[in-house]
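Input (structure):
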């Protein structure tokens, strides 16, 4: 193994003409960064892609999400291209060929989609192979040996995906067989421990990297529960509907009508921003109050009264027998008097995974 690298990897700042090129899936996390540095150290030019979706960060190594995916690329001198998976990703969330994980996460299909996109980029840029930061056995769904084989087969990339961190415990890839990459300088990491990666990071002088994260929002039981419930009522939600699922408490008032109640000031503001002025908003004047947004069609008077009771329940006026709630509906403003919702009303309308269910479906 070579010594510490604290600037652009040697040789890469110079001309890349005639050099072998690879495309890397890059999350900004530890594993994908190490995979890239391991290959760059052999004088190979790397072009990285960071994928994004509506449910969180990229997942190129499924180990972490970085707030600044460019930090290591700047330090070590490799290019990063951003690519949003947008509607293609939504489709696999709805109908994953290989099913969901414990929650709504379609990890196998997700990796297949990313590699398909990377394959196109590889062909466009004349790269010889693809690198990922996957570590055999690190994740239950998509990083088992058979899962890696299926992913390579489904993408038509058999032999073209190099996993430098686990290469020595996987079959040699074409790049290794053709001598483009020296297998001896790759690694045989496996399992869930991250100690070998941390030691390698020290060797490379990679001092700042995010802690491992559990995956995108689709691995969260409650977010997944809300999303499944949303698809049951609306097969084609708008983008803001996905964003709203991250915020507040959600209540199903009718087949096409929901209330979202903010939990703090920051959420209140975000809920209002996401509403874009549409929907019906409620709050309790002169008291600390959540913003409550009613979204959907066919909103009845009864729905507004229920939403007002919920709004009052989560306001500082919850101890009063009767609370005046201000309603803004298409520019029309008025007040209604309601009794704050009791536990039974909340239980009836709340869209939330029950504790026992949540425990049974931890990712
Ligand atoms: S957790 Fe699974 S579905 Fe979500 S981004 Fe990562 S690989 Fe894709």
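Output (sequence):
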């Amino acid at each position: 193994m070579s010594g510490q690298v604290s600037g652009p990897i040697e040789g890469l700042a110079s001309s890349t003409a005639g050099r072998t090129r690879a495309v890397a899936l890059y999350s900004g996390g530890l594993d994908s960064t190490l995979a890239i540095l391991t290959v760059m150290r052999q004088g190979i030019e790397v072009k990285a892609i960071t994928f994004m979706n509506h449910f969180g960060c990229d997942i190129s190594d499924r180990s972490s999400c970085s707030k600044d995916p460019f930090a290591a690329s700047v330090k070590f001198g490799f290019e990063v291209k951003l690519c949003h998976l947008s509607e293609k990703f939504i489709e696999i969330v709805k109908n994953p060929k290989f099913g969901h994980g414990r929650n709504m996460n379609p990890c196998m299909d997700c990796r297949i989609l990313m590699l398909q996109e990377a394959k196109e980029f590889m062909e466009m840029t004349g790269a010889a192979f693809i690198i990922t930061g996957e570590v055999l056995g690190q994740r239950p769904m998509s990083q088992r040996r058979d899962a890696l084989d299926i992913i390579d087969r489904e993408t038509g990339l058999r032999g073209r995906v190099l996993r430098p961190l686990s290469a020595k415990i996987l079959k040699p890839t074409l790049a290794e067989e053709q001598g483009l990459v020296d297998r001896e300088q790759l690694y045989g990491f496996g399992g869930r421990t991250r100690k070998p990666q941390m030691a390698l990071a020290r060797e490379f002088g990679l001092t700042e990297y995010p802690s491992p994260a559990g995956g995108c929002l689709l691995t969260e039981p409650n977010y997944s529960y809300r999303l499944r419930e949303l698809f049951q009522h609306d097969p084609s939600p708008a983008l803001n509907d996905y964003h709203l699922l991250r915020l507040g408490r959600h209540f199903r008032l009718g087949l096409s009508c929901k209330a979202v109640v903010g939990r703090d000031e920051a959420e209140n503001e975000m809920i209002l921003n996401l509403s874009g002025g549409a929907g019906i908003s409620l709050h309790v004047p002169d008291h600390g109050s959540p913003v409550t947004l009613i979204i959907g069609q066919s909103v009845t008077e009864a729905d507004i009264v229920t939403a007002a009771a919920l709004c009052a329940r989560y306001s500082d006026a919850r101890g009063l027998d009767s609370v005046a709630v201000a309603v803004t509906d298409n520019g029309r403003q008025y007040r209604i008097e309601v009794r704050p919702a009791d536990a039974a009303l909340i239980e009836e309308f709340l869209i939330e995974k029950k504790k026992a269910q949540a425990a049974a479906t931890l990712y």
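Notes: The pocket of iron/sulfur cluster is lined by residues 59, 62, 105-107, 110-111, 215-216, 218-219 (CB under 6 Å). The first helix runs from residue 30 to 40.
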